[in-house]
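This part of the workshop introduces the protein records we will be handling. An example says more than a description, so a record of this kind follows.
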Amino acid sequence: MTSPRRLAARFVPAPFRRRWRARRGSGSAVPPPGSVRLGDLERVTPLDGRWGFGRGRPIDRRFIEGFLERHRSDVHGRVIEIADDAYARRFGGDLEGVEVLHPVAGNPKATIIGDLQDAPQIPDSSFDCAIVTQTLQLIWDVPAALATLHRILRPGGVLLATVPGISKISGYDAENWGDYWRFTRWSARRLAEDAFGPGAVEVETHGNVLTATAFLYGMADRELTEDQLNRHDEIYQVLISIRATRR
């Protein structure tokens, strides 16, 4: 007996059958050449030029905050953060104090003005945790910055850092101090291990082809499903997270 699906297929034109098959499997099927429809993404400008802040929470922020949530037990004691103290206050527990580092004067939240490439004004072994999110790409001498972070952490102290993989350029940062680098898990690991030593570094990647595309277009995380956001593909690294411990 012929199944209803096969019977219906006899009367459905081939192009419609191909489109239906392409939509099965949660987007896992590949539509044939010539049948792809870009819809709202068929444009040469982003939906939001500020990483998606205008539409909700940017996709990379979801990955950053998830990383910090998983390692919130590291955020304690004396903490140093870049530009403001929002993440230290949000994820920290049993805080003794939070310092905010900024490279130039004018940031009212900053308690230390200095450059991570060379910051002799910050004493050795001063902090239990350093939160350095989306910062290292703006520093020319990344090895020097990581060496400083290693120096100012106490023994047992932890660096929680994130760096961009697939990302647009930050126009503001590029004009003010430079936007130099994009990373992979392999470059991030090698740089961190050069400063902290082999075995002291954990590196994770976050993203897939869909989240990378959505992030470049400036979509917010709420515009994708949990399953789409939680699938990570090593080939499409939107964000790389680094946890490094000073031995």
